[in-house]
Each structure stands twice: as C-alpha cells, then as structure tokens.
TrEMBL record:
This is Delta-aminolevulinic acid dehydratase. Belongs to the ALAD family. Homooctamer. GO terms for biological process: protoporphyrinogen IX biosynthetic process. The keyword Lyase applies. The keyword Aminoacyl-tRNA synthetase does not apply. It comes from Chryseobacterium oleae. Mg(2+) binds at E238. PROSITE patterns: D_ALA_DEHYDRATASE. The active site is at K195, K253. CDD domains: ALAD_PBGS_aspartate_rich. InterPro entries: ALAD, ALAD_AS, Aldolase_TIM. GO terms for molecular function: porphobilinogen synthase activity; zinc ion binding.
Length: 330
C-alpha cells in the first residue's frame, strides 16, 4: 500500500498556491524599449508583433503606462540614424544624443522608473559591431574607453544603472572606475556577464538595423567576443570576473534555452541575477500563438515563471507589459 501521495498537495488551487515555491510578479520585470528620432512616431517591428519603435514623446507615454501597470524598470535601445554612425561610436556619448534625451525625458516624467540604458557600440557602428575595428579586428581596450565615456554620459543624463551588453574583457572595471571618478558612485552596473553568440537575437538586430554588415574585412559574426553556446563552465569564469570588477547585477543571455546556466550561476553567487528573454524567444511564442498553436497568455506566464524557478531575480522581457496585464486579470 502506498502512503506517500504527492498528489495530495495538488488537489485544488488553494492547496497548490499554499505550497507554491516561486511567484511571478511585475516587480521582476524589466521592459526593453526601442527609441527612434521624430515626434509622434511609432513603427511596428514585423518580427516582434506588438513591439514598436517610438519617438521620445510616445516612449514617455509608454513608460507612464508601464509604471501604472507595475513595471518599474526599462532598458533602452536607440535606432541611430545612418549618418551618425562611424567606427568610433562617438555619437554614443553625445550629451544631446537620442539616448541622453530619452533618459532625461523618462526620468522627468516618471521619476520612479528605473532607467537602464544599453551600453554597446553596435547601434552606433557602421559595421554593426559592439567594438571599434582596426585591420579587421575588434579592439578590446579602445572599445572599453568608449564604453566608459558612454556610461558616464548616460549617468549625466540621469540613468540609474548602465547595462553593458558588449562582452569586451575588462569593461566592467573601466566603466566602474569612470563612474567613480566622475562622482556617479550610486550608478550601478548590470553586467551581461554570460552573453552567448546566439541566433535568437535576429529580430532585435532587424529592429535596430544593427546586424554585423556583410563585409569581407570585418568579422561577420560576434563569436570573438560573445560566448560559444557549447560551453557552460566558461559562464562561471565570466561571472566571477565581472563581480571582481564591480558588477552589481549579473545578466545571463539568452534566456529559455540557457536556464541551465541561470541555475548553475544561482548556485555559485549571491548577487542578483538577471536573465534576458530575448527577441527570438519572443518571436517564437508570438508566431505560435498567432497561428493558434500555443495559448498566448498561459505560455507567457509559464515561461516567465520558469526563469524564477531557475533562480533569476530580474527578467528582461518584451512580454513585460503584456504579462503585467495578464497577471492583473487574476
Ligand atoms: C547588442 C545587443 C543585442 C541584444 C541586446 N544588445 C544583440 C547582439 O548582441 O547582437 C539582443 C537582444 C534581443 O535579441 O532581444 N549589444
């Protein structure tokens, strides 16, 4: 006769909720946002149904809505005009640049919103790379100097945290030192510590027109700086280095196919862990839901909850607004 019956604790929703181990709330969400030049402009991103590029005024309006739904953090990406791109990325630290104006506008209108600008050169690079290129090579240390300048200019505009997504070696230290020297001791760093070279970034690159250009003199992918998806121990090596250099929050990216990495890093560190539910993951769920092959709402809530189960504290997700609305329904 069996005595141990696991189904006892699954009899109804009340008992299931009593023994539930992980709960998803809007407190966990960071919404990535795409910004473009202009006024009262909004453009749909075809491979990301429901996601738009917006001018600053409409971005501010969106931030107000997000905040009222309980989403208290945004991660910012700029669509940079072609004529402002070069190989140095200098537009990235223009104090009147699109990013700097956007940070100011959001902080003015919604002071409680945590604003995390992306720190990487790819949207500003004529080559679509996260680093400065010389003789066909990504120049690590020269890129770090640029990223440090960019981070300080984000802090001057009012950023709460900066989020370097470039994967150069030593950039967390370079950014931390630059922020300390300029007095921005309270501006934190969300470090993309374990970021893999992934095909799941496709829709994002088309949203910003930032894919590496097809040019024989430059690397056509990001494999010399982003991690190899065959590896997992290497992620811990990256994470420990970034912590030593002064990271405040550790990011793992992509998300759903990389939950083993989230779980492994969770066992190893006590710093907050962020996970990025990237554009390709968003596109897959949306495409299936639009075809009636998956239940949209249930799939979103299940996937986001799985990030928490794996050990993440923060979830960067294009579903943030929609998930906040779904959670509000129950
Ligand atoms: C680039 C950057 C990328 C993403 C965030 N920052 C793309 C890349 O590394 O090529 C991807 C985000 C997504 O796919 O949602 N610094």
């Amino acid at each position: 006769m069996i005595h141990s019956r696991n189904r006892r604790l699954r009899v109804n929703e009340s008992i299931r909720s009593l023994v539930r181990e992980n709960i998803l709330t809007t407190d966990d969400f960071v919404m990535p946002i795409f910004v473009m030049e202009g006024e009262n402009q909004q453009e749909a991103i075809p491979s990301m149904p429901g996601i738009f590029r917006r001018s600053i005024d409409l971005t501010v309006k969106e931030c107000k809505e997000l905040f009222s739904l309980g989403v208290k953090s945004v991660n910012l990406y700029m669509k940079v005009s072609e004529h402002l791109k070069d190989n140095t990325g200098k537009e990235a630290w223009n104090k009147d640049g699109l990013m700097q104006q956007t940070i100011k506008a959001i902080k003015d209108a919604v002071p409680g919103m945590i604003v995390m600008p992306d720190v990487a050169l790819d949207p500003y690079s004529i080559y679509g790379h996260d680093g400065i290129i010389e003789n066909g090579k990504i120049m690590n240390d020269a890129t770090n100097d640029a990223l440090a300048r960019m981070s300080v200019s984000h802090a001057e505009a009012g950023a709460d945290l900066v989020a370097p997504s470039d994967m150069m070696d030593g950039r967390v230290l370079a950014i931390r030192e630059a922020l300390e020297e300029t007095g921005f001791t309270d501006v934190g760093i969300v470090s993309y510590a374990a970021k893999y070279a992934s095909s799941f970034y496709g829709p994002f690159r088309s949203a910003l027109d930032s894919a590496p250009k097809e040019n024989v003199e430059i690397p056509k992918d990001k494999k010399t700086y982003q991690m190899d998806f065959h590896n997992s121990r290497e992620a811990l090596n990256e994470v420990f280095k970034d912590i030593d250099e002064g990271a405040d929050i550790i990011m793992i990216k992509p998300g759903l196919p990389y939950l083993d990495i989230v779980s492994k890093v969770r066992e190893a560190i006590d710093l907050p862990i962020a996970v990025y539910n990237v554009s390709g993951e968003y596109a897959m769920v949306k495409a299936a839901a639009q075809n009636g092959w998956l239940d949209n709402d249930k799939t979103i809530i299940e996937s986001l909850t799985c990030f928490k189960r794996a050990g993440a504290d923060l979830i960067f997700t294009y579903f943030a607004k929609e998930a906040a609305m779904i959670l509000g329904k129950y």
